[in-house]
């Protein structure tokens, strides 16, 4: 745990007692703050009380005596309207911050020179975050991985000069981190997302820009117009900018040329790393992720050889285009995190011959947008509630069967892929939510891995979860 000493002896109001909120309350208490916490969910309040956190309805406290409101990132700050706790804090002139801002202040107070890499973007940030952490760890560095990727940042080990922090940041977290100042900050891309919480695309982009604006080195993907404008604006402001692209050559920056990541300096191009043969980094979207990771690792002093070794050994992000097993010329890919068509597209575009397992609880729009990728699909195996709808969309364009359940789909797809005799993938990329048959996409993905592991003659690339 990181004890938050920067609020020692001061009163702090905290709203939101989910996983990260409760961890934040404990970190503030450990650092000597006087914390009063609350949540609209009575069960969360009861759990906090049981863990020794003082709770009280924040509508009844003396706001003039509070040093800050620490807000859970899941609580609306601006849109569709500010939460009532935000209104009370603003009326009293109390600053409103989140757990990432508390981490930033602790780092600044105790180990300002320690390496801190922060990652944001609409798509790809979890893979990029995991890849950077893997490169650092495989090179023997003390690496702390947290943030939006699933581990609350204040549960990490305390800042120390020889530690490396890799923190995934959502737009909600950045909005509550006004002084964020990573050694290397990454903005991968921007497409419309979370507009219910940010109001407009421009406001969403402005929030994301804060992360790179405060960075020692700003690493910015320039394949969309919003991010490209941000890169230009930062450079004019004197920020060191490394541009990255998966689509176009750059005069200065890192980009994809064939299967190589190359670096250009004033038009002079040097090939740095080949992604050829790295199954966990297939696809142009992963080339962007890799380019960002390479730039960030170079910025914090990782050697070229350590980066190369880390790229080659990257196991992939669990449930996201994750190769889990091989049988002859067939690779089995767990892409259970693809819960809509847009999320499934990168995996489908990364393999030439696919035995596709899809379906579950359908999302609006179905899979019609994936039609340009249908020629890559040898056969589809449809499961769950979406099966009839998906069958109608596939029509005569793709052979399919309605397998109904995942176990039948895996068995049939594996047998037919092996009989095909060529290089191909059996891929779970459902383009659907899981809730008709599974508790969440993680359970669905783990079950897929266990089914693959049970196939005769399979060579597993990962260990299946116990109990699945």
Automatic annotation (TrEMBL):
Residues 1-25 form the signal peptide. It catalyses: UDP-N-acetyl-alpha-D-muramoyl-L-alanine + D-glutamate + ATP = UDP-N-acetyl-alpha-D-muramoyl-L-alanyl-D-glutamate + ADP + phosphate + H(+). SUPFAM superfamilies: MurD-like peptide ligases, catalytic domain, MurD-like peptide ligases, peptide-binding domain, NAD(P)-binding Rossmann-fold domains. Pathway: Cell wall biogenesis; peptidoglycan biosynthesis. Cell wall formation. Catalyzes the addition of glutamate to the nucleotide precursor UDP-N-acetylmuramoyl-L-alanine (UMA). It is an enzyme of class 6 (ligase). GO terms for molecular function: UDP-N-acetylmuramoylalanine-D-glutamate ligase activity. Residues 319-424 form the Mur ligase C-terminal domain. The keyword Cell wall biogenesis/degradation applies. This is UDP-N-acetylmuramoylalanine--D-glutamate ligase. It is found in: Cytoplasm. Belongs to the MurCDEF family. Gene3D superfamilies: Mur ligase, C-terminal domain, Mur-like, catalytic domain, NAD(P)-binding Rossmann-like Domain. Pfam families: Mur_ligase_C (PF02875), Mur_ligase_M (PF08245). The gene is murD. It comes from the Bacteria. InterPro entries: Folylpolyglutamate_synth_CS (IPR018109), Mur-like_cat_sf (IPR036565), Mur_ligase_C (IPR004101), Mur_ligase_C_dom_sf (IPR036615), Mur_ligase_cen (IPR013221), MurD (IPR005762), NAD(P)-bd_dom_sf (IPR036291). ATP binds at residues 121-127. The keyword Cytoplasm applies. Residues 119-297 form the Mur ligase central domain. It comes from Rhizobium helianthi. Keywords: ATP-binding, Cell cycle, Cell division, Cell shape, Cell wall biogenesis/degradation, Cytoplasm, Ligase, Nucleotide-binding, Peptidoglycan synthesis, Signal. Its EC number is 6.3.2.9.
């Amino acid at each position: 745990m990181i004890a938050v000493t920067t609020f020692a002896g001061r009163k702090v109001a905290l709203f939101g007692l989910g996983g990260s909120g409760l961890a934040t309350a404990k970190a503030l208490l450990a650092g000597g703050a006087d914390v009063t916490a609350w949540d609209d969910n009575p069960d969360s309040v009861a759990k906090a009380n049981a863990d020794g956190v003082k709770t009280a309805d924040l509508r009844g406290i003396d706001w003039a005596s509070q040093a800050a409101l620490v807000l859970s990132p899941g609580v609306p700050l601006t849109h569709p309207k500010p939460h009532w706790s935000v209104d009370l804090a603003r009326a009293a002139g109390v600053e409103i911050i989140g757990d990432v801002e508390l981490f930033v202040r602790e780092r600044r107070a105790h180990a300002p020179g320690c390496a801190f890499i922060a990652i944001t973007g609409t798509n790809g940030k979890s893979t990029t975050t995991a890849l950077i952490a893997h490169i650092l760890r495989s090179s023997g560095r003390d690496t702390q991985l947290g943030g939006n990727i699933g581990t609350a940042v204040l549960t990490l080990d305390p800042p120390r000069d020889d530690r490396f922090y890799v923190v995934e940041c959502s737009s909600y977290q950045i909005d509550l981190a006004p002084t964020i100042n990573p050694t290397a900050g990454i903005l991968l891309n921007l497409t419309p997302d979370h507009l219910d919480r940010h109001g407009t695309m421009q406001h969403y982009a402005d929030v994301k820009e804060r992360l790179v604006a405060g960075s020692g080195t700003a690493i910015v993907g320039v394949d969309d117009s919003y991010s490209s404008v941000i890169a230009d604006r930062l450079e004019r402001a004197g920020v060191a900018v490394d541009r990255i692209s998966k689509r176009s050559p750059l005069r200065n920056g890192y980009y994809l040329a064939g299967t190589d990541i190359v670096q250009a300096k004033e038009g002079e191009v040097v090939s740095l790393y080949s992604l050829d043969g790295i199954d966990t980094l297939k696809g142009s979207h992963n080339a962007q992720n890799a380019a960002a990771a390479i730039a960030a690792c170079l910025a914090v002093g990782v050697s070229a050889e350590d980066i190369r070794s880390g790229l080659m050994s990257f196991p992939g992000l669990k449930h996201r285009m994750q190769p889990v097993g091989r049988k002859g010329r067939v690779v089995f890919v767990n892409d259970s995190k693809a819960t809509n068509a847009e999320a499934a597209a990168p995996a489908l575009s990364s393999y030439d011959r696919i035995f596709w397992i899809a379906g579950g609880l359908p999302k609006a729009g179905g899979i019609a947008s994936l039609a340009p990728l249908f020629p890559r699909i040898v056969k589809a195996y449809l499961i769950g509630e979406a099966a009839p709808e998906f069958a109608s969309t596939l029509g005569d364009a793709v052979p399919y069967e309605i397998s109904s359940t995942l176990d039948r789909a895996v068995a049939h797809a594996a047998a037919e892929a092996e009989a095909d005799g060529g290089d191909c993938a059996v891929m779970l990329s459902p383009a659907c939510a899981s809730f008709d048959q599974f508790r969440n996409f993680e359970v669905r993905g783990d079950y897929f891995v266990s089914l693959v592991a049970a196939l005769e003659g399979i060579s597993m690339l990962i260990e299946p979860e116990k109990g699945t």
